[in-house]
Amino acid sequence: MPPKLSLIPRILWLLLAVVLPGASSAADLQIEHVTIVSPERVSPMRDALVRVHDGRIVAISKASDATAHSSAATIAMDGSGLFLTPGLIDSHVHLGAIPGMTPEQEAEHPDIARAAREQIPRSFLLYGFTTLIDLISTPQELARWKSHDIVPDTYFCGGAALMDGYAMNYAPKPQRYQWWPYMLIEPGTQAPDGIDPALHTPQAVVSRMRADGAICVKTFFERGFGAVRDLPVPKLETIREVVKTAHAAGMPVLMHANSDEAQRFGLDAGVDIMAHGLWNWYQEHSTGSDVTPGIKKLLDDELTQNVGLQPTIQVLYGIRDLFSASFLSDPRLSRVLPSNLLEWYRSPEGQWFRVVVSQEMKLPADANPSQLEGVFKQFAPAVDRVEHATAYLVARHGRILFATDTPSAPTYANPPGLNGWLEMHRLIEAGETPAQIFESATLTNARALKLDRDIGTVQVGKRANLLLLRQDPTQTIDAYAGIAKVILNGRVLDPSELAANAGRPDDGP
Q1: Cα separation, 217 vs 209, whole angstroms
Q2: For a Cys staple, 131 with which of 89, 159, 170, 191, CB 3.0–4.6 Å?
Q3: What are 338-377's pLDDT values in tens digits?
Q4: Is the whole-model pTM more than 0.85?
Q5: Nearest partner of 10 among 129, 131, 164, 147, judged by Cα
Q6: Phi and psi angles of residue 288, each rounded to the nearest 5 degrees, phi first
Q7: In the chain, what are the domain boundaries?
């Protein structure tokens, strides 16, 4: 997450959602004369025939060699001139809250909220994201997320926050202790009334997560930002025990870590994935953005330990763009957000979070263009640092995981689905190639989260979460601007069915 502001109540975006993957009933599918582009292949397979049954790929062959094998129940699709790829995986999202709305506002505007919640899953699919990983959730939110007809396959991590540390500090007491069921209580710490500390040891927390269906563990190292700078952080031995227990259970461990101090702590603790790019260089005291000797040593150690990194560069823009006069006029928003929600964002009530951020940054309510330009300049150093650090790892074939942290805060400037498309552009600017982005959003993510038996490639036995594209995504990210079809567990979806505000002109991505 980005440096959130001290006035932001964490609960605004901590009502998170999760759904275990399940396939809707779908007819058998046969895709003919298609070019398969899959990350495990050295080169594309041209003129291929792919058969899908019961939501999984059951056969792949050359179309010219295939024998007739269809029935009245089989949907035959001509893939001539198209590219068949795995669906994309966003390994860092938060699905519980409507971006930019508080629970109270949602209750006051049920029609807007209903339309938003129905559209959000479709917007992820619209941009090709057939699998999502919610990094801080619980199984209790399953019913809400599953209540929609079309939902990407979604998994979750349990959030193992240190008691009263980031990020549970933003929730009011005593509710925070119920809202964070996997919190850690270290020895010698006084537990809240009614809370048994024996249920909040690393072993107990990881065991409960696994029993609840979590596939991973999210930990945190964050001293704070804005007016809050003295949050407690976990002891190294605590997180090492979390890692040891999680690995024994087959669960990878991620750490919220956007600073050099935090990522060094994560390396020492043995976590698998840094859940954020390196945009705060506190220990280096650097005023520039070129990789310093200290940052170089940190990044080299991450390369040696093969630690995964989620750059999440778009997070910074999710705050910065609140001050953009043109953001809410972007025609692409009308494809991913209902028109009544967009209209509400433009209202004084919908601008509440911008007001909160303005107050934190000591901006006047009627800030002039020069003052707003100053806001953009304030974010520039952090963007430069994370781009330089990411570029260093990319050039040395580091393990980059595609992730967006959508939404990173109660901001409307991290729109579902579209935020992933924007993140791809940030990664291009940081030195990733389209081929690297393609691999990081498919097989690399699948392997990192131990999902590669089911997804991440176009192979026999894999779940039929697929995309039909008009361009080769290893050559250009514009391929995701022209998705011909989205296939979710064998169910064929047309982008026109997924876009918000059906009937409006298609403005493209």
Answers
A1: 8
A2: 89
A3: 999 999 999 999 999 999 999 888 888 788 888 888 888 8
A4: yes
A5: 164
A6: -105, -170
A7: 11-22+87-456
